[in-house]
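Run log, item B.
One chain of 876 residues. Sequence copied directly from the ordering sheet:
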Amino acid sequence: MSYTTEVLADTPHLYYRMGGSTPIHDEINPTISLRDLVIPAGNLTAVAGALAADSDQARQFNGSTEYADRSGLDLSGTAGAPLTFECWCWIDAYSNDDRMLAEFGGAWSTNSGTFVIDPNNSATGAEANTVSVGFRTNLNEIVRHTFPRSAMSAAAWHHLVAVYTPDPAVASASRIKVYVDGAPVTTTSRQDALVTASTFKVSGTLFLMARGTTSLNLAGRLDEVAVYKGELSSTRVAAHYAAGTATTSPPANTTAPAITGVAETGQTLTCSTGTWANSPSAYAFQWKRAGAVISGATANAYALQVADQGQPVTCTVTATNAGGSVSADSNTVTPTAPAGSPPANTVAPALTGTAETGQTLACSNGSWTNSPTSFAFQWKRAGTSIPGATSSLYDLQPADEGQAILCTVTASNGAGSASADSNAVTPTAPATPPAPVSARMSVLVSGTWQPVTFARGSEGLNRFYVEDYVASGVSDQQAINDAIGAAFAQGRADGSHYAEVIFSAERGEYLLDGPTIKGGTTLGNAQIPLPICDDDEQKFTLVLKGTANASTWNHWNQDVAQHNGVILRSTLTGVATDPSYGVPSIIGGPDPTDAIIATSPFPSGWSNMLLVIDGLQVIAPPNPGLVAVNLKRIAMADVKSLSTLAFQTTAQMNAAKPTNPNGAGLILPKVGNNDNVTIDTFSCAGFYTGMTLTDHLAANRIGILFAKKALGLYGLGGRAFHGASILNLSVEASDTIIDTSVNAGCKFPVFIGNLNIETSTGTTFSDPTNGLVGQINFTDNNNVAPTVSGAKNVRITDLNRVAGAAPSTPVIPASATPFTNPFFRDAAVLVSGGTVTAIAVDGQTLGVTSGLVMLPSGKTITLTYSSAPTWTWTLL
């Protein structure tokens, strides 16, 4: 097998192939941008890869500014379970300054830590010229082994595997295992302080070719990086290495295998091997009937059976050499019966339809050999022919209730006739719908009538009312989907291109406990999938409306979970991203891959719809792995009143932030939308990401509570965009205010009129590629200054700062050292005294050596001097 196939067979948690394309995706979840590697210093140089028979490229790191990282990962496993790191690495040259090949983990504590691989171990004495592999949970609990650098020579590719087992019950010598080029390497235990219970885990950020974000970068190359929640056995390590070094390419089919012989029952067919490149050493054959394997038919010759008559028969040939195995299918033949045979039934006829008085049943022909030329039908009740019932369709009568109904099909050809009976059904009386209210459409779901009320308003608008007629604890999901489907169909049929779905249940709560609907006509992955409006249709306006405002969130002393507006409660857990239709959601539009879009009714990638949401609260289980509302490919959106909540109390959400990166409260239409995304009021609590930013966004009030990342902006190219405007934004008890992952050169305008922050530990603006431009005004109730990463092109202003003398005077930095304005307000800096030779603002020399210097918020001032001056700061 290929190297990639061998790796995936061991189910890695992360797998970065490191090829030449950007971004570098995690092959396990390639559609989740939150798992892409971040390259802070720009794109890395692509070089020839390590694998012998693979054209995929590796990446070169320059050893000074270049490294790769990915934050927000969860590498935690079962307590005490092993963790494995694997890669192909090329170290340009060894040194003794602790430049790391890999480092991943979080803050040191008793239940998390940092796993490191240090080729440039700076230790001396017995440890000199060794590679160090270890795990640190805090200053008192360290496990570290070393092995000689000679086992992994510089300036050459090596396959490296390191395994760490955080279990005190395991012998010290076995807690860290190292394999180089497929073979185990003897390590020496240098530190062993693993003495507490086996609860250590690894989580946080993965750094490659650097020691965190410091300047201690490692020069070399990386390829095929994988992390496993478990231990790779020595056998599997050897298999990975063998696949990576195999120089033989697997066989390649150039001419398909061919079936020869008479395609008639009793005759023998023969399959050729076909023609192959790369010198196969062996061939295997498998005959198939209608795509299914025929048991025991594994030779190149096959004697046709009666069951093969009328069925497509093929042969799959598998060619094998040292590089692997590849299969190719032959041509298809359809065997017939020997001349002069009457029909023979191979698959019985089948009845379809609702077995209820007044409904129509249909009978299929079934499957037959010997090419029937005609079919006759006779319906029977309790074994007796029903007079006149001789077509393939039959309308059920009251006399059929409680009786066994079947159909006998007779197939004929020139040699004779044969008959076969269908399955039998027992019809019942029709279910009684509820008494009508207005003009009601009733839908039968799992034997229960779930009514959907339809009315045309005085304004001529289509309104569909979803009333919760079923008992508490019984799913409303099908009734809601029926209402949305009926509303969409009605708006299309009458030419209005408009419909409202109004949730009017008096108790105000609807239960969603079914699976997501993947693909189909909606091309999504949602419990409530939104219909697609084709590219060439007029835009359709669909309104989802509750009966009350839904914008409130939890009070800080509240000890029950918040309910407001009309509630759509999902119980869905344990769901995963679908490779074809994206992250699962509760309410969601289409989200297929680009390949599916290319052949869909909307090849532009947009469902031509304006979705309006008013008065809804969407509730998910705690720490959700799904999106509450996903509008990624909806052309336009108008959110009037919406809240999304991971169902917990304030105390529960305070205790632990969400950890599932798939969780998001609201994904807005992606950039390139139809120039109208508006929000009047939106609240979100308990999701990993509160909301995504997008083009053409105009928002009045947004509140994000208990999020890992309040706002996200991801996957944008290196160009200018239209941007987003938010008048009022409140972020409380969340780690990051804005997190961006955009390409260098991106210019995304953002304006936030009043950002109110309330957190006791501080929060972060994360914009490492400086893609944000514009203005952000903030206040922090606890006066905890936020941390800023990047964000060099956006002005961030603290409205709590008053004009006048600065609250404190910063210490004069060392000569020629840039110093960032720490006050988040523009400042006038008066420089005097000393011997100053140059003053620069944000790297631009001013041509003066003293006097008043204007320093904008977030910008740097640099003083070059031989004798330190003094300065006075005044906030403007």
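Observations after the first pass:
- Confidence is low (pLDDT under 50) at residues 433-447.
- Residues 477-493 form the longest helix (17 residues).
Flagged for discussion on Thursday.
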